[in-house]
Fold:
Amino acid sequence: MSREGKEPLLVVDGLTKHFPVRSGFLVEHTVDLVKAVDGVDFAVERGTTLGLVGESGSGKSTTGYCVLQLLRPTAGSVRFDGRELTELKGEELRRMRREMQIVFQDPYSSLNPRMTVGDIVSEPLEVHGSGTRRSRRETVRLLLDVVGFDPSFTNRYPHEFSGGQRQRIGIARALALNPKLIVCDEPVSALDVSIQAQILNLLRDLQRDFGLTYLFIAHDLAVVRAMSDTIAVMNQGRIVEAGPAEQVYTSPQDEYTKALLSAVPVADPRRQRERKAKRRRLRHALAEGF
Amino acid sequence: MAVNPQQEELRERVLTRSGGGVDAGAPIRQTSLWRDAWYRYRANRAAVIAGGLFLLLVVYVVFAPILSPYDPYGVDFSQAYQPISWSHPLGTDQYGRDLFTRTALGGRISIGIGFAATIAIMGIGILYGSISGFVGGRLDNGMMRFLDALYGLPYLPFAIIVTQLFQTVNFWVMVTALTIASWFTAARVVRGQIISLKENDYVRAARAVGARWYRILARHLLPNTLGVLIVFAFLELPGVILGEAFLSFIGLGINPPQASWGSLAQDGRDVYLAHPTMILIPSVAIAWLILCAFFIADGLRDALDPRTRET
Amino acid sequence: MALLEVRDLRTYFATRDGDVRAVDGVSFSVERGRTLGIVGESGCGKSVTALSIMGLIPKPPARIVSGSIQFDGKVLTQLREAELENLRGREMAMIFQDPMTSLNPTLTIGTQITETLRRHLGMSARDADRRAVELLEEVRIPRAQERLKDYPHRYSGGMRQRVMIAIALSCNPKLLIADEPTTALDVTVQAGVLDLLEELREEHQMAMIVITHDMGVVAEAADDVVVMYAGQIVEQASSLGLFDRPEHPYTEALLGALPSLEGEGGREARLASIPGRPPDLLDPQAACRFAPRCPFAGLNDYCSVEAPELRELRPGHWVRSAHPASERAPV
Structure:
């Protein structure tokens, strides 16, 4: 997976997404605009992970959906593998969807409770008419095995499994079409720490084995650090700082990034005391927002 | 359907990858959703009793006319207005016809109309509501405003008008009239469900994969509305039955010799002082059915409520 | 004497398939002016412990099977509901995880605060209003006087949590229990809330129990720590002691599974993951509950046969394990 000389897999330029706030009695008109994503630029090289980090309301999830065209951007360009996604529609867009998939945050609402595990994972294959029923069943078994989920349970329903197990099912589903890019939207936020580690390790292994590119969206800075090659910090719809992961973590430039980093509690009481003092100083420097 | 090169590549990668992941383990709970629902239903004692009484009524309505030795249409004035006895468990009417049998037959019509109309209502409601809820935007707006306008029409006069469009009022005419007059709320309920279900991540996942709208609707949205719709159907049933009963009672319903509980009650209307059983019996039957339906709906709501189903 | 003493608490939930032993023999104490952190993953029993102390467990299906809870000399487990209600809110207070659902959306913030004041302290309406403003100012809500009349939906998550804290502190309780107070909040807001809690604890000289799954929050807020697993305490120590030298394999694994914000690590570090899942609390085996997932369990057979007792490894440092770190032979 050589990176020199090739265009990055994903290039986002000036991405904007506005949500109109409508009001009105019989005829609705727009009274205000929520600028969820306000001019975002970044690029992700093949086989690497870009960590998109920010607090709630920063627009990171919306950015992820816009990249995948699950929400159509208000403006801006999304170039994926050389093609401009914002111009694609209908059948062309559907075909493109095979190359980019998503893993969701909530293991409880990301799987249809009325479908069996096997059906859930094979749905992408069915939708694109891949293979015969038998070959699809076989592929499903392979996929579940890859994510560490026992394939003998394909006839069970999601509610019979724990959060971590359900996330694995979701990951298997995302892999089914052999995509190049996977958007991971807070994939471990709803999981316990020990399960979180399992899933993060799994995602890293899969990236290595399948040459995947990740757009990893999260609010947990430590988790993002464990996964990312490059990082972009978002605040109120804009990227305030971006760069190689270690650089941003060890020498942040932007005030917001600094505040964010100092606010994360670290599992070391002595260190935590120092950081608390530092945080207090920073708080006086930054305008109070909360 | 050809296997595409992507699939081949995936398979190769899977088979040649290094190492294995940590095993996720066995399912943590092994009950079926339906069995859990059944347990919750059973916990509601009133619902269980109501279910039993309802079944009893259905058995009566189905089998009594078959097993009865009497001719429900035969006229024999010598037997008119017999009191309750072993040979006539519910007495006889003004024509000497056995009421036990006639009530059962009437029950077939009433319950039949009730269920048929309810099913039709749910059908139209699902069609209208899912289109409106799924498409959203201006179409949804327009469809709902239209519905609002229809709500303004008074229910019974509307039903009456529909029945008058046909020459005779038979079973299917009644079903049609009642359906047309009462499908609005069903459409609303379905639309509400679809709108809230649309926000679920699994719907987004289906879209991310490229599923077309009909697949999303049929596979992801409608099956998950099932619980709510079943409860709602059992709440619609009493309304429809009462509607039919009322129409028949005022003489605008089922034509004789076919009888429904409403028309049986009408038969007894003029003689209620002398022979109260003639109006009491069908009234009790209607009340029985309606009460059962309400309690069953209550039990079903406990059983199928999505909020209690989580985790 | 400690302000709060919990001895061998057992809280079980009756279910269709038997008793779920949510809390199965937990003992700890909390001194005035100190913060105890109870840490563990979901299902370990930490929330149920807190609810048991407050008397807020749903009486069927849950019940306190055995054990005692002593607060300020009174034995809570023997009090009647009415007496418990007097204590609740007044001497012991609790704040919950989700500030979105903890406040009544149909009452103004002012009403919700003054309600407590009038119930427990018998204040008049005017006095209660004045005190409510003072409280909001104490939790650093700007323009407190005006904001009394607002409804909860006009407050952000962080502010709502502060209101919860204000309500909890309104009667000057001796003990404050915070159940995952920061989990639903953004990181920057989280830090503010934790800072606030510490300051208030100092000022009011309260004892505090912070329940969390986040080791970082524990490091920040707690003086002493209790680690829970499968309804039991598996390690108990001072905060410094626990993080300096964790003993129980579960604690070690938990700390190892945390991605780190600083230091070596980052992209290359492999996160220690604990294989498997916590045991079913319906019928926990008589043996060590962590054994199936413990990397050291194979060493001898004790672990799958006999449950280890909680023993004091060092002064103030207790472990429930046959293989604590300091007893393992160096590799």
